[in-house]
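Issue 218. Parser rejects a valid record. Input:
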Amino acid sequence: MRSAGLVILDCDGVVVDSEPVAIAALAEFLQGIGLPVAEDYVYRHFLGRSWTTVTALLARDYQIRLSAEEVEAYKELLFERIRTRVEPMPGIAAAIAALDRPACIASSSTPERLTVSLGKAGLSERFEGHVYSASLVKNGKPAPDLFLHAAAAMGYAPEDCLVVEDSPAGIAAGLAAGMVVAAFLGGSHIGPGKLRPAALALGPAIIFDSMAELPAVLARFDALRPA
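Output the parser choked on:
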């Protein structure tokens, strides 16, 4: 009998409803070092991107190279906000508990941030040993590297993987990896970030707005997989 397939979940904006908090923290930090950027700019350019990509864009577009002290200050600000202001995505615990197949996390976040976020969601033990950060690959999202790495580590071919993503960068990465992509558009950042049109324009195979819909998403995934 063929395997039921692998579910690859992004973390921020899928498992934890963290993006508005993280976007606000990054905008506040950048403003604090003299870069006059608003939150909408951060949404457009940095949402779903790895820290390596963020710093590369800052260097390219603003000739800003952060010192080790500045990076540490930002991390302290971000982690404090995650610990005190971030909540699990509504319904995520029940949705994960009901999964009838293997699952893993593949996120642009650093390993340290993933540890904090999954702890907030109460899912650290559930995904122990199956958490993959963009720090493991050369190219972050929207490149497919991270999803392909996660699939290989879990022992699955790309066509047997379902990617659950919220950001345009993540959706593009899943599609580039040759996986079935389900765009989750139920996070509190989707409206403020004006992300729905951009996500839909990429053509994900499945679109859903509530974690209660995950069983139906899995059924659709099974129907889309090649025989």
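Fixed in the parser; the record now loads. The mean pLDDT is 93.
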